[in-house]
Amino acid sequence: TALAGGVGAARLLRGLVRAVPPAEVTAVVNTGDDLVLHGLHVSPDLDTVTYTLAGMDNKETGWGLAGETWRVMEELEALGGEHWFRLGDRDLATHLYRTARLHHGATLSEVTAELARARGARVRVLPMSDDPVRTRLTLAQGTDRWAAGTEVAFQDYFVRLAHAVPVAAVRFDGAGSARPGPGVIEAIAAADAIVACPSNPIVSLGPLLAVPGVREALAARRSRVVAVSPIVAGAALKGPADRLLVELGHESSAPGVARLHAPWAGTLVIDERDAALAGRVEAEGMRAVVAPTVMRTPLDAAALAGAALRSVLDAAR
Ligand code: FO1
């Protein structure tokens, strides 16, 4: 069972399905980034995971589909419509399909399974919850559009502001009354290994852990839970994880990540560049495993997935 957020997760998942048969893999995915735009329900992380596992992901952007065209966005721009969030012509079919199915009473889990099957993702893709959970961030600095102290939706922060504004607080609206999606708790309880992908601890794993019951289910299997640090030599490989950690009072380092994950994960895989920090990771209560964690190719990803799995499966024997 993999706990997955956005881009970093997709890379590791591509390796995971080379290390074990895809049919044996379940991905529990963040939905805190979801938004309704043009009346369409968009689930970025569910789509990134599904597209990546189906081998049809756009490798340049890290999101959306390969070989995409943008005729609708161009036309919408000509009309003066919203085009800041780029929805490709092929990607739009996903959002049209999802929105119509939800409108007819299907759950997000059902629609996600249909989309994964239709695209040939072979892995079980589970939304963390079928109830709405939305990541919202309070800006620590004003911008030309929003005053300091304003709370904005995730994609406003991540795309419109290019996550280039310091953040004072993050919350997951709806988490308190959200139920784990169908199969989520069972996937954690029954897994031989649970891998927390190198996703942003604050805004990709955070929403997942905020769904009541998930954190407890993980803590109950802590010796089988291995996380891969998204921070290498103090920096995030992609996205705002390092800045968010510091802005919210944490340390942007492998030990800083260990301090956040120690309550529910027993092992942290850290990059070779952070080997000297293994002692400090262990001082935070997590076992440190040193391995190459920068995934440039699917083979890198497979090697990292193998190292992560072995670290908990060997220990369990
Ligand atoms: N990210 C961007 O930086 N700009 C975009 O225009 C954009 C559009 C987009 C459309 C569909 C989708 O599934 C993802 C998209 N993303 C875009 C990425 C998205 O903001 C992130 O993947 C997640 O929300 C965080 O991992």
Rg for CA atoms: 19 Å
Oligomer: single chain
Q: Which structural class matches the secondary elements?
A: alpha/beta
**Global outline:** globular
Q: How much of the residues is beta strand, in percent? A: 15-25%
Average pLDDT reading: 97
The count of DSSP E runs of length 2 or more, i.e. the number of strands, is 14
Output the strand order for the largest sheet.
5-2-1-9-10-13-14
Helical amount: 25-40%
Give a quick account of the main beta sheet: strands, pairing sense, barrel closure: 7 strands, parallel
End-to-end span in angstroms? 18 Å
Encode the helix/strand succession as letters.
EHEEEHHHHEEEHEHEHHEEEHHEHEH
Q: Counting H and I runs of at least 4 residues, what is the number of helices?
A: 13
Low-confidence stretches: none
Bound molecules: ligand FO1
Name its key features.
alpha/beta, 16% strand, globular, binds ligand FO1
Task: Write a short abstract of this structure.
The chain is of the alpha/beta class and 317 residues long.
